[in-house]
Amino acid sequence: MTRPFPFRSVAAVLTAAAITVLAGCTAQPGTAPASGTTAAPASVQGFGCPTRAEVAGLTAIPFNDALPSKKSCTYTTAADASTVATVTLRHPAGASGETLSALRYAAIGRGASTADARAITFDAFTSTTKEDCTVWFPASDGVASSVTARRSGASGSEACGIATAVATLAGSATPKAAAPTVAVIAPRTLLGATTTTERWPWRIAQRTTARIDRLTGTGYLDPSSASSFATIAAGVPSDSSAVVFVSGTAEAGASSLAMLRGATGALSAAATRAPKAQLIVVGPVSDGTASYAEVERLGVDLRAAAKIAGARYIDPTDPATTTGVADAVAVALRSTGVTAD
Hints:
- The strands form two sheets. The chain has a seven-stranded antiparallel beta sheet with strand order 1-2-3-7-6-5-4.
- The model is unreliable at 1-46 (pLDDT under 50).
- β8 (181-187), α5 and β9 (211-217) form a beta-alpha-beta unit.
- The longest helix is centred in the C-terminal third of the chain and has 18 residues, at 256-273.
- The relative contact order is 0.10.
- The protein starts with 9 loop residues before the first helix and ends in a 6-residue tail after the last helix.
- The chain has helices at residues 10-17, 52-59, 100-109, 160-170, 195-206, 229-233, 256-273, 292-309, 322-335, and strands at residues 65-68, 72-80, 83-90, 113-116, 125-128, 132-138, 144-151, 181-187, 211-217, 242-246, 278-282, 312-314.
- The chain has 341 residues and is of the alpha/beta class.
- It is 30% helix and 21% strand.
């Protein structure tokens, strides 16, 4: 029989482990973490592994093995013949200097489902597979790190709680000069759960210094709707350096006047919410439901709306792809000075 995987309360976790668990992640193995006024900066400290007892404080299961290496630590437990739990810390999580956006792009490409983990920090995220859950985050020294948890007989999503707990206690970095935030607003058909639609916004971040905030809506029409682009734009981060509208074809069949009103209204809402943001409009990316003539007309209307609002217009390639859109947006962000080359 498979045993449940017990979790301690937040108070118990903090009491039992907050001081020691993962404090050694920036210390040399076998030594106490450096601290105090004479401690070396985190960026020059080595990477060390917490003890089995420290990690057990988060799981309430005694770990019977610990396998440290220069860049990672793995802890396993066999509560009985059919139950095995594993927690792995990696520092760095990928290649030296690899960003969290690049790691997220790669994780989605491998088939993992990702989600923001902003309770830890803006850039943190989780990636879940059938077998395990990984939390990716910038460690206290700013290096992209990860915590992977898995338990035999359970789905990967069931391990996210312990992975998040370990990552939270590990601590994360808050850069003094944060990268520019770019809000990307797109139809749900272009920001879905498939690998292609989930992955492309992180391609923008992979090619720039931007931090991406993804927002989904139904389109430009019916601006009073809670899911319209106008309503979504009114809630973008106020410090956004750019707001990018990636247009679909849901508006096919609407009059040009309705399109102009809807699109200029959405752009106005974004400008009001984030007055310092560069506005970018990407022409219609068809999902195959609109005719060529309808896509062409939508492009004419959107270009006109962008001109009225003082926004930059990007005409997607024909046929438009989300990968092509991501690359075009990255180029636009660099050329307008929103992100560095």
